[in-house]
Specification:
Organism: Feifania hominis
Radius of gyration: 35 Å
CATH superfamily of the largest domain: Copper amine oxidase-like, N-terminal domain
Distance between the termini: 26 Å
Structural class: alpha+beta
Largest sheet: 6 strands, antiparallel
CATH class of the largest domain: Alpha Beta
Number of helices: 12
CATH topology of the largest domain: Copper Amine Oxidase, Chain A, domain 1
Keywords: Signal
Shape: elongated
Protein name: Copper amine oxidase N-terminal domain-containing protein
Strand content: 35-45%
Strand order of the largest sheet: 5-6-7-8-10-9
Pfam families: Cu_amine_oxidN1 (PF07833)
Helix content: 10-25%
CATH architecture of the largest domain: 2-Layer Sandwich
Length: 466
C-alpha cells in the first residue's frame, strides 16, 4: 500500500502563504518542510517568487516515495504519487493534467472543487481533470519547480505554515476505510493479533515512510524483528539478555574415498565454520538450550585446554603406505592393533608414546584413504585417547547453572551425511533445525526465544525467529 504521504508529495510545500492565507517568509533558505512529522532533507530547496511558494518536483516527490518522469522530447514532467494519482505538466507551462482513475484518496470531482486555478475542466467520466494554474511552473538550474498550493490541493494534502519557525507541515490523513485497509495489511503481515501501540506506529510510519515494511515498523517499536524475519548479530531477550548469533557457514572440501564393507565409497569432506554462539545477561539463575535436530556442545574451555596441554586429546596423526593394511576395511582396526601389538609402528611409539599407555583399550583409531589414483596410495591414521564420556564436553540439551556468559556451539549434525555424500547439494533445500533458548532469572522472571536455523544458497546460516 503505497499511499505515500507521497501525495504529500505534494507536500506541496505549501508554504504558501497563499495556501494558508499567511504572509510568506523572507528567505528561501530558511524554509523547512515536514511531512507527517518527519523533516524532508532536500538538496534543492523550495523558493519564493512574487509571494508564491514553489517546490522542486523531483526532490519532494521522490522523498515521499513518488515516481517522477521526464520526457525530454516534449519537456513534460509526470508525477505518479503513491496514492495512485497521476499529474503531468509541461515544464515552464501552467496547464496541469490530473488523472484520478486509480486514486486511493481523492476523486477527480473532489479535486476540481479544491483546484486553485482557472479553467478547471472535469472529464466526462469524472476520472480526470485539467487545470490552468495562476502561477505556472519554471525550470531553474536543471530542476523543475511547481507551485506548492496547487499541487497540495490537487493531491489532497493538508498544508500548514508556522510563520515564526518558517516551517511548512504536510499531513496525509487516513480515513476510516484506509485505516481498515492498513489493519488488514498489518494482520496479513503479522499473521497474528497486534496491540494498539503497534497499529498506531504502523499507521504513522507508513504515512511518513511509505517504503517501510511491517518488519521495519515492528523492529522500531519492539527492538527486534518479528517472527519469520531473518535476524543476524544480536537478539535481545526481554531487554535483559542478549544472544549473539554465529556467522555459520557450511563448507564442502575435496572429494575423498573410503571403504565400507569391502566396497570403495566416494564423497566429500565437509565442515561447519563459525558455529559458536554467545549468551550474555545479568541475574541469570539457569539456562536451557535445546536443538530439535542438530547437536549442541558446551565445552569447559579451562578443562579442555588443560587436557590438550597434557596430550589427553588427539595423541598423534601419521601417514602409512596404502599397502600397509591388507584386511577388508571392516577389519582394518583389528589389523592395525595386530601390527601395533606385534611390534609395528615403533617409530610412532617412540615419538608419541614415551611414558604413555600403549594399550588398545585406551585409544580410538580413525583411518582416511587418499591418493587412490596415485602409486602408492596413502592411509592417514589418527589416534585419540578414548573417552566413554568426554569430561570437558556437555552435549544434548544444555542445562547451565548460574552464569552471566554462556558460550556454546551448534552443529547441524542432521545435515552432515547429506553434505558428505557424493554429488551436488542444494544448501537452501536442506532441512531446518529449531533452537530454543530458555532463561530463568534470579528474580523469578523467565525469557524464551525459539529460532529456525536454515541455510541460503551459499551455505550461510539464516536465522528466523519463530
Amino acid at each position: 500500500m503505497k499511499r505515500l504521504l507521497a501525495l504529500v508529495l505534494v507536500l506541496c510545500l505549501a508554504l504558501v502563504a497563499a495556501a494558508t492565507g499567511l504572509a510568506a517568509p523572507a528567505s528561501d533558505a530558511d524554509i523547512r518542510l515536514f511531512a507527517n512529522g518527519s523533516e524532508l532533507q532536500l538538496t534543492t530547496k523550495p523558493v519564493l517568487r512574487d509571494g508564491v511558494s514553489y517546490v522542486p518536483v523531483r526532490g519532494v516527490f521522490e522523498s515521499l516515495g513518488g515516481v517522477v518522469g521526464w520526457d525530454a522530447a516534449c519537456g513534460r514532467v509526470t508525477i505518479a504519487t503513491a496514492d495512485g494519482i497521476l499529474l503531468s505538466i509541461t515544464a515552464g507551462g501552467s496547464r496541469v493534467s490530473a488523472d484520478y482513475t486509480h486514486s486511493k484518496t481523492l476523486s477527480a470531482a473532489q479535486a476540481a472543487e479544491r483546484a486553485p486555478g482557472e479553467d478547471t475542466v472535469l472529464s466526462a467520466d469524472k476520472k480526470s481533470l485539467r487545470v490552468s494554474l495562476a502561477a505556472g511552473s519554471f525550470i531553474e538550474e536543471g530542476s523543475t519547480y511547481l507551485p506548492l498550493r496547487a499541487l497540495s490541493e490537487l493531491a489532497g494534502i493538508e498544508v500548514g505554515w508556522n510563520g515564526e519557525q518558517k516551517i511548512v507541515t504536510l499531513e496525509r490523513r487516513y480515513d476510516e476505510h484506509e485505516k481498515s485497509e492498513l489493519v488488514s495489511e498489518l494482520r496479513a503481515a503479522q499473521n497474528a493479533d497486534f496491540d494498539e501501540a503497534l497499529l498506531a506506529a504502523y499507521i504513522d510510519r507508513k504515512a511518513s515512510r511509505p517504503g517501510e515494511t511491517y518488519a521495519d515498523v515492528f523492529e522500531a517499536v519492539n527492538g527486534q524483528p518479528p517472527a519469520g524475519e531473518p535476524v543476524a548479530g544480536e537478539i535481545t531477550l526481554d531487554g535483559k539478555t542478549t544472544l549473539t548469533l554465529p556467522a555459520t557457514r557450511l563448507v564442502r572440501g575435496e572429494r575423498i574415498s573410503w571403504y565400507s564393507a569391502g566396497v570403495q565409497r566416494w564423497g566429500y569432506a565437509a565442515a561447519v565454520e563459525e558455529n559458536g554462539f554467545l549468551l550474555e545477561g545479568r541475574g541469570i539463575d539457569s539456562v536451557v538450550i535445546e536443538s530439535a535436530r542438530g547437536t549442541l556442545r558446551l565445552t569447559d574451555e579451562a578443562l579442555y585446554e588443560s587436557m590438550q596441554q597434557e596430550g589427553k586429546l588427539l595423541v598423534c596423526t601419521f601417514d602409512a603406505p596404502g599397502d600397509t593394511f591388507s584386511a577388508a576395511p571392516s577389519d582394518m582396526e583389528e589389523e592395525f592393533w595386530r601390527i601395533w601389538e606385534s611390534g609395528g609402528f615403533s617409530n610412532i611409539k617412540a615419538a608419541h608414546f614415551e611414558g604413555r599407555s600403549q594399550s588398545r583399550e585406551d585409544y580410538t583409531v580413525r583411518f582416511v584413504h587418499s591418493g587412490e589414483n596415485e602409486t602408492p596410495s596413502v592411509w592417514t591414521v589418527s589416534m585419540y585417547l578414548r573417552y566413554d564420556a568426554a569430561p570437558f564436553v556437555q552435549t544434548g540439551p544444555l542445562v547451565i547453572g548460574r552464569a552471566d556468559t554462556v558460550r556454546a556451539a551448534w552443529t547441524p549434525s542432521h545435515l552432515m551425511a547429506t553434505l558428505c555424500a557424493d554429488g551436488p547439494v542444494d544448501f537452501a533445500a536442506l532441512p531446518c533445525d529449531t533452537l530454543t533458548v530458555s532463561v530463568r532469572y534470579e528474580d523469578g522472571g523467565v525469557s524464551q526465544i525459539c529460532l529456525e536455523l536454515s541455510f541460503d544458497e551459499q551455505g550461510s546460516l539464516v536465522v528466523r525467529k519463530l
